[in-house]
Amino acid sequence: MQPTEQLIMIKGTSSGLTFYMNEHAPFHLICEELQKMLQTEAWKQDETISITIHVGYRYISEEEKNQIEEIITSDGSFQVKEFITKVMSKAEVLSYIEQTETKTFVQMVRSGQVLDVQGNLLLIGDVNPGGEVRATGNIYILGKLLGIAHAGFQGDSASVIIASYMNPRQLRIANYLSRSPDTETEGVYMEYGYFHEESNKIVIDSLQKSRHIIGNSERGIPNG
């Protein structure tokens, strides 16, 4: 790091101040700069100021958070609102992998059975009437979907449902529901269901048209 490079950049907001910490600077230099900066008379205020800390791509431990917070709050003029980092914690990484991984099952889901997964579901087999499959992400069925499929069941409306043969009893995406017609209908081959925002409903369309939808349904992250 160059000696003249700024260690802390400050911006005022309607809810307080935001401190942007130089993500490449040694942590002890950041702390020293923070102490010198806050000790000047210009920072003395009659009321407590709320401060948000941005640390960029720097991983910041709980101990380091406490050290920064202690410096900022030492004279009672400031309080730390939150820390924001672009780095994921190990727990967040594991959770992200769990939520985006595709789990594969080779089986038939019979009436009364429920197949429930975190992440995306790839089922090689049929979902019979009365059977149900649920996933927090997308659902891909290499077989007949005759029962219930619920994609994005924790609220992800960008999830999709794809089946080799689509004649479901019920489709759900996030909190949205689409039921099958009361009359007997023929199923359709190689179709997918997705939530259409403009019409505010679940739409079934040709799988050939799904590329732009599926491309936008990848999930993607606050050390707060």
Q: Explain this structure to me?
A:
The structure is a single chain. The chain is α/β, with parallel strands linked by helices. It has two domains: 8-87, Transcription Regulator spoIIAA, CATH 3.30.750; 95-215, Pectate Lyase C-like (3 Solenoid). Helices cover 18% and strands 39% of the residues. It has a six-stranded mixed beta sheet with strand order 5-7-9-11-14-15, with no helix packed on it. The protein has a five-stranded mixed beta sheet with strand order 6-8-10-12-13, with no helix packed on it. Strand 2, helix 1 and strand 3 form a beta-alpha-beta unit. Helix 1 packs parallel to helix 2 (62-73). The radius of gyration is 26 Å and the shape is elongated. Mean pLDDT is 84; it is low at 215-224.
Q: What letter string, H or E per element, gives the SSE order?
A: EEHEHEHEEEEEEEEEEEH
Total strands: the figure is: 15
Strand order of the largest sheet: 5-7-9-11-14-15
Tally of helical segments: 4
Oligomer: single chain
* CATH level 3 topology of the largest domain: Pectate Lyase C-like
Number of discrete domains = 2
Alpha-carbon distance between the two ends: 27 Å
Structural class: alpha/beta
- What is the 3D shape? elongated
Named at the architecture level, the CATH assignment of the largest domain is: 3 Solenoid
Specify the biggest β-sheet.
6 strands, mixed
Radius of gyration, CA atoms, in whole angstroms: 26 Å
